[in-house]
Amino acid sequence: MTETHHPTPMDLPHHQVQHEPHINARPDAEHDGHAPGRAQHEHDPFADSPGKSGPFATVEVDPRALGPVHTEYAPKHDGAPEPGEVVWTWVPYEEHDGRGKDRPVLVVAHEKGLDTQLAIKLTSVWHADAENWVDVGNGAWDREARESWAVVDRVIRIHQHGIRREACAMPREDFDKVVSHLRERYRWS
Questions:
Q1: What is the pTM of this model?
Q2: Model pLDDT for residues 64-84, shown as the tens digit of each residue
Q3: Residue 46 scores a pLDDT above 50
Q4: What are residue 100's DSSP bridge partners?
Q5: Which end of the chain lies in a sparser environment, N or C, as judged by fewer CB atoms within 10 Å?
Q6: Is the pLDDT at 42 greater than 70, yes or no?
Q7: Are 51 and 159 in contact (CB under 8 A)?
Q8: DSSP states of the chain as a string?
């Protein structure tokens, strides 16, 4: 019996990648198992994630306006978000309309003088704008062990009390790959 290889988007030249139309689809529907078009709060057990609102809300920040940002790999499995760890928190959608979802994010830096960290969202849905997506393989942050990408064109600020759970440490080589893109793009150290 011969095993057939089915190409993934990464196997195809950029111009051959086919994209599903997103008509009536909720943005970022990956990782949560919801069918496109469903209301965000329907069957969402994490609709009240601690990072959704209040003083510990996860927010998007302008990475160029942060001043000096120092990144280092320093995971400690102690319940607090540390650079190099993947944690779950509420992440607002790009539309900034109050919607969002509970999802895995990679912590990339502590903010100097603040009790917050900077993070990058992870996704299992590949997109063609390769300059914004860094392949980080698969890991314990995704229960289905799907290949994941770090989305480096959006930076979020998280708070220790705004995370739902600590997932795992990302392998050092994948963290370094993501941080290399962030350093080049935003002039971080």
A1: 0.75
A2: 999 889 999 999 988 889 999
A3: yes
A4: 92
A5: N
A6: no
A7: yes
A8: -PPPPPPPGGGS-GGG------TTPPTT-TTS-PPTTS-TTTT-TTTT-TTSSGGG--EEE-GGGS-----------SSS--TTEEEEEEEE-TT-SS-EEEEEEEEEEEPTTSSEEEEEEEESS--S-GGGEEEEE--TTSTT---EEEETT-EEEEEGGGEEEEEEEPPHHHHHHHHHHHHHHH---
